[in-house]
Amino acid sequence: xxxxxxxxxxxxxxxxxxxxxxxxxxxxxxxxxxxxxxxxxxxxxxxxxxxxxxxxxxxxxxxxxxxxxxxxxxxxxxxxxxxxx
Length: 85
Fold this sequence. Notes:
Elements: H1 13-23, H2 56-69, H3 73-82
């Protein structure tokens, strides 16, 4: 099992901030609501969380890619979930 803190070893807040500034530098529009949320009355949003286990091979590849970019795996996954479809 991998230590939860392992994903952030060697990475600083500055590294992550620089990474996101570069990745999001082309975004010029103001923030918008998530798809399908515009008709939900305020106070009625229900947030849920889910998770899944990655195959070891994929986990290793993602960690190497994150290290190559100078960010944590968590940052890389967060960015990946925010990319437009």
